[in-house]
Design brief:
- The chain has 1 helix and 9 strands, in the order αβββββββββ.
- Helix content is 14%, strand content 47%.
- Keywords: Signal.
Length: 118
């Protein structure tokens, strides 16, 4: 293998792995109803958990939600009362509501907290 190929391969490996980050979201549901939560990337067409699934958080409970994202990626949450998406928070169930305080940046080994209040 030539030196050029080794350097190119090493650059590709480091570029790919440097972008990946694992982080967690700590969702506190302070409502009396269960809520559904989705996370939406603002930088690419990615949704967590994806595949038409949602994170369900029971009433008056909390849950840690791990995700893998790209370092520096902007992510926003959408939450709604389970069974009634007319009562929503963040960017809503369709990622179409304005929100200044419901987004965060993906940072390796970090935790963001989401408080869902009545």
């Amino acid at each position: 293998m030539t030196l050029f190929r080794i350097v190119a391969l090493a650059a590709l490996v480091f570029a790919t792995s440097a972008e990946a980050a694992d982080m967690a979201l700590f969702v506190k549901n302070m409502r009396r109803e269960g809520v559904a939560v989705e996370l939406f990337s603002r930088d690419r067409e990615t949704v967590w958990p994806g595949n038409d699934k949602v994170f369900l958080i029971d009433p008056s409970s909390q849950k840690s939600v791990p995700i893998s994202c790209n370092q520096g990626e902007r992510i926003c949450y959408g939450a709604w009362v389970n069974g009634n998406d007319q009562i929503s928070a963040g960017v809503g169930p369709d990622n179409d509501q304005p929100c200044d305080t419901c987004c965060f940046i993906c940072v390796e080994h970090s935790t963001e907290t989401i408080d869902l209040v009545p």
